[in-house]
Amino acid sequence: METNSGTVNLALLANLKILVVEDSATMRNLLTTLLTAMGIGEIICATNGDEGVALFASRAPDLIITDGMMQPMTGYAMTRAIRSMREHNGSDVPVVMLSGHGDADIVEWARDEGVNDYIVKPVTPQLLYERVLAAISTPLHLVETATYRGPSPRRRLVPHQAVIQTEIVETPQFLQTGKPH
Q: Which of 140, 146, 156, 162 is 20 to 30 A off residue 86, Cα-Cα?
C-alpha cells in the first residue's frame, strides 16, 4: 500500500471503484469531491439502500461507503443484503458506514449487519482518507452461516470520529464587555 518513503501508491487509488450510498445530496457531493481529490478512479453514487444493492450487483465496487439511516432501505439493511449476495462476492467487499449516530447500540447494530468500519459525522478529509486506506489494506476475516457470510459479528467495532479543533485567536471586545461596539 505505502512505499518505503511513506507515500501512498497513487495507482492503487486510481484503480479503486467506490460505491457511495447517501440520501443527502449535500453529503453525497462532499464525499464525491473528497474521494475525487484523493485520486479515486471511479465513484458510483446511490441515494438509498435499494439503489445501493442494485449498483453493487451491477458495478462490483471495491469498497462501499454508506450512510446508516435512509429510506426506503437503510444502510444497515443494505449491508445485510449485500453480505448475503454470494454470487456477487458480497462478503468480500469492505463496508464503511458514515453516520451521525455514534451510540454503542447503533455501532453494534452496524457491526452485526456486516459493517467493517464506522465513522461518526462530521467527517474530515483526513479521517475519510485514513479509513479508505484502512478498508482497502486490512484483510477481511470472514465467517459463514446459512444466512450470513461476512466479517464476524462478534468482533469489536470502534467508531472513528474526527478531531475538530476550534480556536479563538482573540476574544472579540463585545464578548468581553457584553456590549457591541
A: 156
β-strands 63-66, 17-21 pairing: parallel
Cα–Cα distance for residue pair 172/127, rounded to 1 Å? 32
CA distances from 179 to 52, 115, 157, 175 (A): 53, 51, 49, 7
CATH superfamily of this structure's domain 10-177:
Response regulator (3.40.50.2300)
| Residue 105 one-letter amino acid | D
Give CA–CA dist 1/69, Å, rounded: 32
Enumerate residue ranges in the chain where pLDDT < 50: 1-6, 172, 174, 179-181
State residue 23's pLDDT score: 96
pLDDT one-digit tens code per residue, 111-141: 888 899 999 999 999 999 999 999 988 777 7
Helix (H, G, I), strand (E, B) or coil at 140: coil
The Cα–Cα gap between 72 and 147 comes to: 22
Helix (H) or strand (E) holding 118: strand 117-120
pTM: 0.79
CA distance 136 to 94: 7
Residue ranges per domain, the chain?
10-177
- The reported pLDDT for the residue numbered 68 is 93
